[in-house]
Amino acid sequence: MYELIYLVINFSLLIDAQFHIAGDGKLAGVIEPNDAKCHMSGNFSTDFLTYDYPSVSQINYVAKENNVNIIFAIVKKDGTTLKESYQKLSDRIENSNFGELQDNDNNNVVNLVVKNYQKIVQSVTLTTNATDDIDVKFSLACKSSIPNGCTNVHVGEIVNFTATIQPRECLTNKQTKKIISIKPEALDESIIVELDVTCECSCSSIIDKTYVENATACSGKGDLECGICKCLPGRFGRNCQCDSSSSISEDTTNCKINEQSEICSGLGECKCGKCECNKRLNKDEKIYGKFCQCNNYSCKREGGLLCSGKGTCDCGDCKCQAGYTGDACQCPDSNSTCIAPESDLICSGYGKCDCGQCECNVDKGHSGKYCEECTTCPAQRCEELRHCVECQAYQTGIYDKNECKMKCMAFSTTIVETFYDENDDNIKKCRVPGKAGCIIIFEYTYDENKELIVRAQKEKLCAGPPNVLAWILGVIGTILIAGLIMLIIWKVCTTIHDRREYAKFENERKALKWHRNDNPLYKEATSTFANPVYNRSSRLSSK
């Protein structure tokens, strides 16, 4: 078990360890699934050996049902970070946020909670419990929009929204009414809509006084229902005057959209003054309309799918599902995909959102997914701000005290001990040279009112005096190491050369065709000569 530190605020959690998921309890012999209920007594769990850890979907369900917003405050531990893990967890839990802390300073924790709390309270997102057979679309009038909601909503600001509710099919007899709840996320207040879908009129009932069976007005071949003839099978026409065996009509006036158009749009036959549309080989593809001018298969396709698979084709036009728009329902109906993380501006304010993608002002040099890159824009304001920052933070630089007050009124520099490694594209980092060769480190950003905020590091980065002894020892060491390396290289080269020469000699010796003593060119080290004058017998006699 990992030790967890809970904050006073009931929707925040400070943690320095990986989270557990359903199934981890089996390691301790706990196999009973979590019941999504609270089993706490004081600050301890009473049934941690009875129920397994909850799943991510259970946490998401409970948080959504109880309007709880969860904030994960992740602390670095032993040089590691849990950011990636908790980012994925936050993506799967609605209305949850996360942030990374550099240390356990209470002020940092409070700032993180306040920052995420402001994001929560300044956003409004509408939700509904409508099922798939009912289409609900929201239209909100706000400056910064997200899917089904708005951001940057301030206290007292009124946000008007319109909900369009459309049933996709008739309700069954057992379920003639539906109760739909529409509410902002994280709030208990809601609007209850009672939806009653009427698929048939009362006049269509046989017990209605206006209902006439086999009516004369219907040529005796149909029933008069709500003033309209409902023809018997095989009969058609306004007054059921035609049957399916009727031949092709000579008078095709009623089968043309205008005098110049084709009969039944070229996709049917005119029978009894009415178009009978052709049948398609694919039963799912249909031709329909008074003049056979409509079909459900000729709409625009995207990704090989009719209406991108996010709508239905009706008379050549895509009828999109909620949340999508475009000729092929290929575009989201919100600008959320054009807003960079931690930003409220559409396409960073340098482009427009078209079909869920940013179209940047290329003529001004902007590019990137969110038009956040600019190759031709002037550099950051580091050089512009450096002199004011230096005089305000360190009382040094080209400005004296009076000049600093006169020329640096646009902002006030805040001194901080050190900067955290925040991955925020809105915060610009600056490192500029100052007096006496020191480096000044500061950062700047803008608040909601576009006011400049500047923070400078308390201590400058100044280089100390050179260490002469270290330089001397370094040079000597470098020379010794270089000489040793050269000796090693020379020894290796000579060894390789000697081995090659010896191998060459051995190969030549093995290639000889006779023994060296039989070689006519071979001469021994000693030579023997015979004296012809020498007489052995005379020598013996003289002795």
Explained architecture:
Residues 1-201 form the Integrin beta subunit VWA domain. Residues 491-537 form the Integrin beta subunit cytoplasmic domain. Its main location: membrane. It is found in: Cell membrane. The chain has 543 residues and is α+β, with helices and mostly antiparallel strands. Among the domains are: 5-121, Rossmann fold; 126-199, Immunoglobulin-like, CATH 2.60.40; 335-374, Laminin (Ribbon); 382-457, Hormone receptor fold. The strands form 14 sheets. The chain has a five-stranded antiparallel β-sheet with strand order 9-10-7-12-13, covered by helices on one side. The chain has a four-stranded mixed β-sheet with strand order 1-2-5-6, sandwiched between helices. It is extended and about 165 Å long.
What ranges have pLDDT less than 50 throughout 5 or more consecutive residues? 1-12, 538-543
**End-to-end Cα distance:** 120 Å
CATH class label of one domain: Alpha Beta
Which percent bin holds the helix content?
A: 10-25%
Number of helices: 7
The CATH H-level homologous superfamily of one domain? von Willebrand factor, type A domain
Looking at the structure, the CATH topology of one domain is: Rossmann fold
* Total count of strands: 35
User: What is the overall shape?
Assistant: extended
Strand content: 25-35%
**Largest sheet entry:** 5 strands, antiparallel
Strand order of the largest sheet: 9-10-7-12-13
Radius of gyration: 45 Å
Mean pLDDT metric: 78
